[in-house]
């Protein structure tokens, strides 16, 4: 493997999770640069790849994965689920959901953060509606559940905050050194 | 551990976008040539590396200030990605220039005779 091929391989490593087309485009650009200058860039290849990942963000596939996997986290973070499964650590799942939203925002940008936040919020809001408007319906099948106003407020506020946090956390720092 | 940045680095960062846009406004150019050209055009004032250039070019392209164009100039060699300014890029350059020039004049006035020290 030539010097430049080895360098580009490590750049690709730094650009992990970036879409294939962006990786190839950037590596071709570096290859052309090598032909012109006849020397490798001074930067560490993995660091250069990571800097470019900050610019491009992760690929659409990985953003989609983050959004889809946020949905079950949203389900498990709903306090009402303890009506059926009392041992589910809902607060832990809420914390995990928040971390998930931050991850999506940091690596995918503000829209990715927003949609991941929405993916967490949707099952929570549905559960909220079921246990408030549809509480009589629920109680036809199960024991008489009660949801306090405090729980309703908490679920509503956290559900609204998650997409907002995702959107605003998505302003990634992209500055040259 | 995060690297600390000093005032000189901050100054260079702030001027870098303006320098890049001003350079590419004169003629479209590609990565390696921009590094050499910018250093020459600023009489050594801007010595940049690939690690600063490519992320900056990527950001400016994403913001719509730069238009890339792939050109294969020599047969058997890789195509080069030439960057030129878009209309939005020209407007951004104008905006930055309008902010920059009074700042430089003001600072020179402030320095006064200290400029010769």
Would you kindly provide a written description of the structure presented here, covering whatever features stand out?
The complex is a heterodimer of chains A (177) and B (117). Chain A is an all-alpha fold and 177 residues long. Chain A is 72% helix and 0% strand. Chain A is built from eight helices and no strands. In chain A, helix 1 (3-14) packs antiparallel against helix 2 and helix 6 runs antiparallel to helix 8. Chain A is rod-shaped and about 75 Å long. The model of chain A is unreliable at 173-177 (pLDDT under 50). By secondary structure, chain B is mainly alpha-helical. In chain B, 59% of the residues lie in helices and 12% in strands. Chain B is built from four helices and three strands, in the order H-E-H-H-E-E-H. Chain B has helices at 7-26, 31-41, 50-62, 87-111; strands at residues 29-30, 66-71, 80-85. In chain B, helix 1 packs across helix 4 (87-111). The termini of chain B are far apart. Chains A and B meet through helix 2 and helix 3 of A and helix 1, helix 2 and helix 3 of B.
Radius of gyration of chain A: 22 Å
Task: Encode the helix/strand succession of chain B as letters.
Answer: HEHHEEH
Question: Biggest interface and which pair forms it?
Answer: A-B, 25 and 25 residues
Q: Average pLDDT value of chain B? A: 87
Q: Order of helices and strands of chain A, N to C?
A: HHHHHHHH
Mean pLDDT of chain A: 86
Q: What structural class results from the helix and strand content of chain B?
A: mainly alpha
Strand content of chain A: under 5%
Sequence of strands across the biggest β-sheet of chain B: 1-3-2
| DSSP summary, beta strand count of chain B | 3
The dominant shape of chain B is globular
List the helices and strands and how they pair.
The complex is a heterodimer of chains A (177) and B (117).
Chain A lengths: L2 H12 L5 H18 L7 H12 L3 H17 L13 H19 L1 H21 L4 H7 L7 H21 L8
Chain B lengths: L6 H20 L2 E2 H11 L8 H13 L3 E6 L8 E6 L1 H25 L6
Antiparallel strand pairs in B: 1-3, 2-3
Helix pairs in contact in B: 1-2, 1-4
